[in-house]
Amino acid sequence: AFFHWITLNHALSGLFCASLNFIDSTRTTRPVQTYEPVGDHSNTSLSSLHLLHGTLPREVVCTENLTPFLKLLPCKGKAGISSLLNGHKLFDASWQSMSIDVRPVCPEKNSLCIVEMEQTVDMVLDIERSKRPHDNPIPRPPPVDQLKCDTSKAYSSPNACFPMDMSNMQSWSLSDVFGRPIKGSCLATDVRGERSESVCIRVPYEHQVFTSQGSIERKDPSSSHRCYVLPEYDDFDMALPQQESPAVISRPTPPLYASRSFTGHGQERGGVQTLLTNPSSNVAVSFTYFETLPWFMKPFLHTLRAQIATSPSHSQRDIIKSIYYRPALDRQRGTQLEIQITVPPASTVRLTYDFEKAILRYTEYPPDANRGFDVAPAVIRLPPNPTDPSCKAVYLRTTSLLLSLPTPDFSMPYNVIILTSTVIALAFGSIYNLLVRRFVGADEVESFNLARIKERIKARIKGRFGVMLDRFSNKEKKTQ
Q1: Could you give the C-alpha distances from 307 to 12, 254, 338, in angstroms and in order?
Q2: CA-to-CA distance for 88 and 93, rounded, in angstroms?
Q3: Which residue has the higher pLDDT, 287 or 43?
Q4: What confidence score (pLDDT) does residue 416 get?
Q5: Residue pair 212/234 in contact by the 8 Å Cβ criterion
Q6: What is the pLDDT confidence band of residue 455, given thresholds at 50, 70 and 90?
Q7: Quick check: helix, strand or coil at residue 296?
Q8: Which strands make up the sheet holding 238-240, listed edge to edge?
Q9: Which of 4, 111, 356, 467 has a CA-to-CA distance to 291 between 20 and 30 Å?
Q10: Residue 128: in which H helix or E strand, if any?
Q11: Rounded to whole angstroms, what are the CA distances from 424 to 414, 418, 430?
Q12: Percent of the chain, pLDDT > 70?
């Protein structure tokens, strides 16, 4: 199974121009409670399947991943909503993510099953920043006469201005935010042959929305949703002018708040603290908390503590229901920790444990070793509502952490190499002289006679000149 997992990672790495080939055994875990197979699977196929989970917290989605992502779409980013996915706008957003879900689907029993692929792009845009023109990319403070101040503040004065929240009153359009309109529709008809809705937005019912000619608007009076059927070949643009209506769509309260951080100090040991807050005032929330830790971050399971922040004396057994722990092996696999947790209503649970930092070989450090090592975010799985069959499990993720390990002085290996080379050169030269040089006594050496040496040198010079004169005389005879 692991061989096929590595083969799949290498194939996906080449398909999406990503670094998925770096997922090895140290970054792979086998979840037991957090994940489960999605789609239609027979009992025989489930028995032969293996569930594996890999993480690369250091890698981020970048522009080279967008092109292969768009090539998987039916219209290749040339039409439909995908025509708005401009790399400069997408990766200039405050937050963005890309995902692909693949699952087998069997429409009916004993029928031919198909593979369904769902591609998702999430973006959080700053309208003011997105509307900034390309010829003026650097933000500059507006003039004083253009500032919009909130005069309801007590400290408001001609010399003090608190910016007014304009998020609900700003005017925008697709061309302003993304730099282009939607280039027609892609897959304009559904299975029944009717024109399908391609673009949906959530705005108050009384707000005005202007769209291009040829589109069809469908409003739902009971909700804030309104959808549009795009023209098949013409461009589609949508504009929301500045609204005077105070109506604002309330955001739903999330089922859980989670934050994770490091504690402690020093280069030898540390700790992890996770705060889990239940915003509901009358319903307890149960979920699975899943962590994947690198092998050089070794947690102490006996230090695992879970307590309610407002009531430290609360029993830990009421909070932690079960624990699945798989320890790490040095340079072979990471640590896997799955915990079933229940948070009472209107409470905050503090989950803490201590860990020890391992010392790496100097060849295992990245080029920017002093930056630290990225630790994968924790995954929280909220189970689906059993009374609603259409409800799916909700997954939340905390932020990733930056772990600082003991870092050696990387200039020392070069000093050691230079010193070792010098010692070897001196030792080799001495031994070579002892083996090759011949030592004789002083009385065995011939007496030094300067006159004899001069005569020998003169004889050799005369002999060389004589040979050269003979060669020139032979050449002259041949020419004659």
Answers
A1: 42, 22, 17
A2: 9
A3: 287
A4: 87
A5: yes
A6: confident
A7: coil
A8: 172-173, 238-240, 210-211
A9: 4
A10: helix 127-130
A11: 15, 10, 10
A12: 90
Task: Of 20, 97, 53, 2, give the one whose Cα is nearest residue 293.
Answer: 53
- Asked whether the beta carbons of 324 and 338 are under 8 A apart, the reply is yes
Helix, strand, or coil (residue 417):
helix
In b/e form, how buried is each residue of 291-311, taking b as 16+ CB within 10 angstroms?
bbbbbbbbbeeeebebbbeee
Q: 464 Cβ partners below 8 Å, 6+ apart?
A: none
Q: Mean of the pLDDT values across residues 328-352?
A: 93
Is 70 exceeded by the pLDDT of residue 476?
no
Can you give the pLDDT at residue 477? 60
Contact 182, 239 (CB under 8 A): no
DSSP of 59-86, one letter per residue? Answer: ----GGGHHHHHHTSTTTTSSSGGGG--
Instruction: List, as own/partner pairs, every contact residues 59-66 make where C-beta atoms lie below 8 angstroms and the sequence separation is at least 24, other chains included.
Output: 59/18, 59/19, 59/22, 61/91, 61/96, 61/97, 61/98, 62/91, 63/87, 63/91, 64/17, 65/16, 65/17, 65/18, 65/98, 66/90, 66/91, 66/98
Residues 6+ positions from 209 with CB-CB distance below 8 Å: 201, 203, 217, 226, 238, 239, 240
Of 297 and 443, which is predicted with more confidence?
Answer: 297
Q: Which two tokens stand for residue 81?
A: 């909503």
Q: In the structure encoding, which two tokens stand for residue 204, read together? A: 């108050």
DSSP at 385 = P
Name which of 201, 196, 205, 278 is nearest 230 in CA terms: 196
- AA identity, residue 70: L
Please give the structure tokens belonging to residue 398: 């905390």
Highest mean pLDDT among 164-168, 283-287, 442-446: 283-287
Residue 84: what are its φ and ψ, rounded to 5°? -85, -15
> What average pLDDT does the segment 26-39 reach?
90
The token duo for 124 is: 């959080």
Q: What is the pLDDT of residues 86-100, one digit of tens each?
A: 888 888 888 888 999
Read off the tokens for 301: 């399971």
Q: What is the pLDDT of residue 408?
A: 83
Give the model's pLDDT for residue 285. 93
Assign 289 to helix, strand or coil: strand
